[in-house]
Amino acid sequence: MPHLTRTRTGTASTRVRTGFGIPGYAHPLVAPAEWAELTRPGTPLHWVVLDVAGGPGSRPDPHCLEAAARLRTAGVRVLGRLDAAHGARTFVDLLPEAQRYADWYRVDGFYLDRCPAERGALPDVRRTVTTLRAIQPEAHIVLGHGTHPYAGYAENADQLVTFSGPWSEYRWSQVAEWTADYPPDRFCHFVHGVPRGHLEEALRIARWQGAATIYFTDRTDRGGRMDPWETMPGYWDEIVSHIGTGVSE
User: What's residue 245's pLDDT?
Assistant: First the structure.
């Protein structure tokens, strides 16, 4: 079991709706089955990240337009991926990309990938989020830290990705104490390399650590040479069933 720095009273027994946040499949031409599967009725999706070409691209992509339209029709929230490059890119760089996502793909919000996590970067991230909400007042904003950031970030976005990495680290991970002050629907966990036999354990960790949005896959990054999120996990149907029926303690 994972080591916890603070017990989240009652989290495992509540009826918080666990669902998927899709970090971004490969282009629809490369991964057509993955994109088609996301519109299957009953799939517990919270949102899907759309990454056309490291961002929105230089012109509307017909295949991505079609994929985004199908998701919207199915009632799935679509987020445009913006690369914050750990703080190297500011709102000045991201604003034009966000506008293209909104104009071309009618996204429902934005995913700030590689978002910085330290306290000193918070004012710049806050300014970026404020600018994004000026473009789209109802935008759903997810900050993709990949680790527990300074607590102040939680007041500036709808959700935070507080873990993104391999199962070998996740199964022994600790949750920051300050997260207990927020409901599980504020946090996301992305874990790659999860063996099929450890799915229930991984789901229990997410629930005890208070993350309602998850994405687990048996794909790996092969030492940083591959993107583990580009394709669907081999046990997709099984994990959909697990989330749909819940996991007993």
Answer: 54
